[in-house]
Amino acid sequence: MFHNPRGDRLCDPGGVPRDLRIAATVTGWIGTVLLLDAVRAWDGVELPRQLLLGLATWTVLILLLRAEPPLVRSQTLVVVALATMVEYTFSPLLQAYVYRIGTVPLFVPPGHGLVYLAALALGRSAALRSAPRAAVLATVLVGGGWGGYGLFLADRRDALGAFWFGCLLGFLVWGRNRLLYVGAFVVVSYLELVGTGLGTWAWARHDPVLGVVTQGNPPSGAAGGYGWFDLYALLLAPAVIRAAGAVRSRARDLVPGRLRGRRPDRRPDRPGSRRPSRLEGAQDRLVQLAVGGDGAAAERAVDPVE
Fold first, then answer.
1. DSSP 223-269
2. DSSP label at residue 202
3. How far apart are CA 70 and CA 76, in angstroms?
4. Where are the domains positioned within the chain?
């Protein structure tokens, strides 16, 4: 379903498959943006910096999506929409985690789209598809070890991470594209470790609703929580494509043909036919003007003119 026929065969001059280049581009961009965000800014520079980082991240996302099929574009936009709602609910409102600037940075919504695209690219890459069982097993072992450490051994206990790792196991067992979740584990874990390490955001010690569920910084199984975005992207993207097609069809029906760029029909004359003269054209227009009047007016309009 997610195989891109161009993805694994298109290589750059160095021979690197396109999907791996997408993943490398995204992880490199994530690290760059987080580093630039962590640099101490002078007074009055924070807002321009956030605007530039947000605009640049949107630009990178759009450029990468240009080579993707409509289904992947729709999936990515679904992730961006859902993740943005979750971000503003759980960060500024509930404060399950808090960003350094006090609200959601402008580069975060498009960043979620990049994370999904990188996870998808890894999942459909030849490197993972050549050994899917090994990739899934490695994810379970690494994620399980991290989750177990956070739940039982870490100084700051992490029950949320263990719960999310359980979600990840469910996606790996019953998901329609297990390698997508393997890719998500790699990219999201990298994102969370770099983001919290640089201080771009920090997780609260306990959940904001009950106040009893411990949270690591970051939670070990964050990729399992992110997997819900991936799941809804797979489920909702076809409906988004159908809705967009229906809107375009409706718009074509409402817009006149001339406004849609159609040119008048100028078919070549048949052999033996001749073009009407200007005089005959004027007579035709007189007939059109006479429509609705009495019959005599119409007859006068079509009388031969010498």
1. HHHHHHHHHHHHHHHHHHHHHHHHHHHHHHHHS-TTTTTPPP--PPP
2. E
3. 10
4. 18-244
Spatial distance between the Cα atoms of 61 and 76, rounded to a whole number of angstroms: 9
The amino acid occupying position 245 is G
Euclidean distance between CA atoms 73 and 128, whole angstroms? 22
Rounded distance, CA 30 to CA 186, Å? Answer: 13
Mean residue pLDDT of the chain comes to 85
Residue 212 corresponds to which tokens in the numbers above? 């009893």
The angle subtended at Cα 296 by Cα 294 and Cα 297, nearest 5°, is: 70
- What tens digit of pLDDT does each residue of 242-294 get? 998 889 888 888 876 655 555 555 555 555 555 555 555 555 554 444 444 44
Sign of the alpha-carbon dihedral angle for 296, 297, 303, 305? positive
Distance CA 17, CA 59 (A): 22
Q: Encoding tokens for residue 9? A: 């065969």
H-type helices in 106-177, by residue range?
A: 108-124, 126-129, 132-148, 159-174
Residue 37 parent element (H or E): helix 18-38
Rounded Cα gap, residues 303 and 306, in angstroms:
10
User: Who contacts 109 (Cβ-Cβ below 8 Å, separation ≥6)?
Assistant: 80, 83, 84, 87
Residue in the block written with tokens 């640089």: 198
CA separation for the pair 160, 61 (Å, rounded): 30
Q: Is 272 left (phi over 0), alpha (psi -120 to 50) or beta?
A: left
